[in-house]
Amino acid sequence: MGYKTILTVITSEDQQVQLDAAIDVTRREDAHLEVFCLGVDHSQAGYYYAGASAYVFQETIDRAMASAQDLETKVRDRLSAEDIRWSVDSAVAQVGGLTTLIGMRARYSDLVVLTRPYGETAPADAVAVTEAALFEGSAPVLIVPDTGLPADFGQTVMIAWNQSEEAMTAVRRARPILAAANKVEITVVDPSPDGPEGADPGAALAQMLDRHGIRVDVAVLARTQTLVSDIIDRRAEEIGANLIVMGAYGHSRFREAILGGATRNMLAKSRIPVLMAR
């Protein structure tokens, strides 16, 4: 079972790396690429205040419509030369309506390809788009770094395993990639001896994957750095991983936004593609 419907959401002309990655994954999977071009109205016209002018609201909507149509035209021109199956659609939404709109699209997709939602080069609405795909769409999301997908993408995969429901969901959703990989490592950071896997963390997952014909190694690492995300990143570089598979938002989004967390840190800093699900 592979990925047959790939979705990517474009809100800015600067997302060429993301679009290229989506095309590459679509070709690799012999899938259908759906590109959703979105014009975002940031005026929050759904809220009225005394003295507000309807003309101002209409102008921002018109600007968002023009942006969406321009994006759709450019994406169609880009895809017309590609040897893949594709479709392009566009829409306009207010910031408050992004979640439902993108969630409905992501729900019927096998994989969503997006760019990093944090950092200086991130599109303005990337955080809302990513969280909508994960939470409302319940879809696996492939986060592409600024450098794009490596040429050997998916050949060496690291599973960041913490025995959580989110991590298991990510592994299940990543199975087509895991099955095609040359090397897969289950990486466990500072496991609790009182955890459900006891003294052999990662063994049950390794057995499950082995029964699917996926041979894996298990690495148990001590917590030598403050941030788990830093340990994951360092280990991925050590083994030459070109994809990290991990669960997303084991804590609430609010907690991660205020206190930080592995999900937010990986989305902000990782130079390696990350496949997340929850």
Please describe what this structure looks like.
- The chain is of the alpha/beta class and 278 residues long.
- It has two domains: 5-144, Rossmann fold; 156-277, Rossmann fold.
- Helices cover 40% and strands 22% of the residues.
- The chain has a ten-stranded mixed β-sheet, sandwiched between helices.
- Helix 3 (98-107) crosses helix 4 and helix 8 packs across helix 10 (262-269).
- The longest helix has 26 residues, at 54-79.
- It is globular, with a radius of gyration of 20 Å.
- The two termini are 19 Å apart.
- Mean pLDDT is 88; it is low at 254-260.
Short structural summary:
With 278 residues, the protein is of the alpha/beta class. The chain is 40% helix and 22% strand.
Question: Keywords, please?
Answer:
278 residues, alpha/beta, Rossmann fold, 40% helix, globular
CA-atom Rg in angstroms: 20 Å
Beta-strand percentage range: 15-25%
Please identify which CATH superfamily of the largest domain we are dealing with: HUPs
The SSE order reads EHEHEHEHEEHHEHEHEHHE
How does CATH name the architecture of the largest domain? 3-Layer(aba) Sandwich
Q: So how many helices? A: 10
What is the CATH topology descriptor of the largest domain? Rossmann fold
**Number of beta-strand segments:** 10
Could you report the average pLDDT, rounded to the nearest whole number?
Answer: 88
Whole-number count of domains = 2
